[in-house]
């Protein structure tokens, strides 16, 4: 009897090079009998070279390692749409982790196709947003692919990971104990857990890495940011790529302590969680972009876009990057950026990015309409008739209320003190 050669099932794993995903390679292989292919995607998280990460994956038992420098892709196709959408979840969080998941997902699915894998794996726990973002993304781009998360599905705890790495002599440090869970990329940095879980505790110095203390800033730094259709194209007149612009502003706004965020946030899974973020470049760019929109978007367009921006942001936070509605809103947002071009001059200093000047060939700001000087172009006599008609429906309703209920008392409106 001849044994029929069986091809093993293959699983692609989102690999960071850290302890947990290094252990996950062998852990998944032992639990499932499958071959593991490590996928490392550089979205500007810094740290080790892709080559080092690739070698470690192989040394930890991966049969193949797929590494990709996705920094430009991430900056252009994920950070720039977020900027155009003024994407701040709960008016504060610039979606740092939320936008990195879809780019990693695209590479995971590409790697699964390339290596004939049936399953995709990631290192997320069962309590956060990131598992949702990975798996909803994978389901959308590869409906035939299965998902497995060793921390959630195969009981891979931190203690077991340390024990496993030591027993198997994995080439990864198990001693360096970082109390925080950190996720970082070129758009920003997210820090959670440890003593931050007591929401009365303030963040300590060691929480921060992208920013210096805004209380002791260097001299003010004035930067001019040029935008073309909502996308920054130059700093101080130097043409740069989106990635270069984010990186330079991370440095320049970072030393000024700009973009530190401390919030209790509503996760999709129903938990409220304490998060510290640092996003110096992103926050400076958003402040500049919003001000450029203020002068280039027509009033109703601007008001409506705020609603669209918020919905877009919630969809992206909730892991719906590849959803039909998100794509529809992208189309609206892109179209709205047609005239969002020009220069914003801002001062970076002591934790604040303050706009000081704006200039645009497609501006709607009309000095002759706005000026209080003599010779303005605005016909003030039109205002009276406008106000009469604009207030008419409320006036009619008030007259009805008085007829039915009598006069509304204004007794609570009393001056605190009289001068005379
Ligand atoms: N709460 C943020 C989000 O859901 C950040 C998550 C960061 N992940 C981490 N492992 N620290 O987008």
Automatic annotation (TrEMBL):
Q: Write out the entry's keywords from A to Z.
A: Amino-acid biosynthesis, Arginine biosynthesis, ATP-binding, Cytoplasm, Ligase, Nucleotide-binding
GO process terms (BP):
argininosuccinate metabolic process; L-arginine biosynthetic process; urea cycle
Q: Which GO terms describe its molecular function?
A: argininosuccinate synthase activity; ATP binding
Name used for this protein in its record: Argininosuccinate synthase
Residues binding ATP:
14-22, 123
- To which protein family does this belong? Belongs to the argininosuccinate synthase family. Type 1 subfamily.
CDD domains per the UniProt record, alphabetical: ASS
Q: NCBIfam families this protein is in?
A: argG, PRK00509.1
Species of provenance: Micrococcus terreus
Q: Which GO terms describe its cellular component?
A: cytoplasm
Q: In which pathway does it act?
A: Amino-acid biosynthesis; L-arginine biosynthesis; L-arginine from L-ornithine and carbamoyl phosphate: step 2/3
From the UniProt record, list the reaction(s) this protein catalyses.
L-citrulline + L-aspartate + ATP = 2-(N(omega)-L-arginino)succinate + AMP + diphosphate + H(+)
Q: Where does L-aspartate bind?
A: 125, 129-130
According to the record's subunit comment, the protein's assembly and interactions are: Homotetramer.
What's the Enzyme Commission number for this chain?
A: 6.3.4.5
Residues given in the record as L-citrulline binding sites: 93, 129, 133, 181, 265, 277
Enumerate the subcellular locations listed in this protein's record, separating them with semicolons. Cytoplasm
Q: Arginosuccinate synthase C-terminal domain: which residues?
A: 180-396
- Where would you say this protein principally sits, based on its record? cytoplasm
Domain (Arginosuccinate synthase-like N-terminal): residue spans on this chain: 10-171
């Amino acid at each position: 009897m001849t044994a029929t050669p069986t091809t093993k099932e293959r699983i692609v794993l989102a690999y960071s090079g850290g302890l947990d995903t290094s252990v996950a390679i062998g852990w998944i292989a032992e639990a499932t009998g499958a071959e593991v292919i490590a996928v490392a995607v550089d979205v500007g998280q810094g740290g080790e070279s892709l080559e080092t990460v690739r070698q470690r994956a192989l040394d930890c038992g991966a049969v193949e390692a797929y590494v990709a420098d996705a920094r430009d892709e991430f900056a252009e196709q994920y950070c720039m749409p977020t900027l155009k959408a003024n994407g701040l979840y709960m008016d504060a969080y610039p979606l740092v982790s939320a936008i990195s998941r879809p780019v990693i997902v695209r590479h995971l699915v590409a790697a699964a196709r390339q290596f004939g894998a049936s399953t995709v794996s990631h290192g997320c726990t069962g309590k956060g947003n990131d598992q949702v973002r990975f798996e909803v993304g994978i389901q959308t781009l590869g409906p035939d692919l299965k998902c497995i998360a060793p921390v959630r599905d195969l009981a891979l705890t931190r203690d077991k990971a340390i024990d496993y790495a030591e027993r198997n002599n994995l080439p990864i440090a198990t001693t360096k104990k970082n109390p925080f869970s950190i996720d970082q990329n070129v758009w920003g940095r997210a820090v959670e857990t440890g003593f931050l879980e007591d929401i009365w505790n303030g963040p300590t110095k060691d929480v921060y890495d992208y920013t210096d203390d805004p209380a002791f800033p260097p001299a003010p730094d004035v930067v001019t940011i040029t935008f073309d259709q909502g996308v920054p194209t130059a700093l101080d007149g130097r043409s740069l790529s989106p990635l270069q612009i984010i990186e330079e502003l991370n440095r320049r706004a970072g030393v000024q302590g700009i973009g530190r965020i401390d919030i209790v946030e509503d996760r999709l899974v129903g938990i409220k969680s304490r998060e510290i973020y640092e996003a110096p470049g992103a926050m400076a760019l958003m402040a500049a972009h919003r001000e450029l929109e203020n002068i280039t978007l027509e009033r109703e367009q601007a008001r409506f876009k705020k609603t669209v921006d918020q919905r877009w942001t919630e969809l992206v936070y909730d892991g719906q990057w590849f959803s039909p509605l998100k794509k529809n809103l992208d189309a609206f947002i892109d179209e709205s950026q047609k005239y969002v071009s020009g220069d914003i001059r801002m001062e970076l200093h002591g934790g604040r990015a303050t706009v000081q000047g704006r200039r645009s060939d497609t501006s709607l700001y009309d000095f002759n309409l706005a000026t209080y000087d003599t010779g303005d172009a605005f016909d003030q006599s039109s205002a009276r008739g406008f106000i009469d008609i604009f207030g008419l429906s409320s006036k009619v309703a008030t007259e009805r209320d008085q007829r039915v209920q009598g006069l509304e008392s204004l007794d609570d409106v009393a001056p605190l003190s009289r001068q005379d």
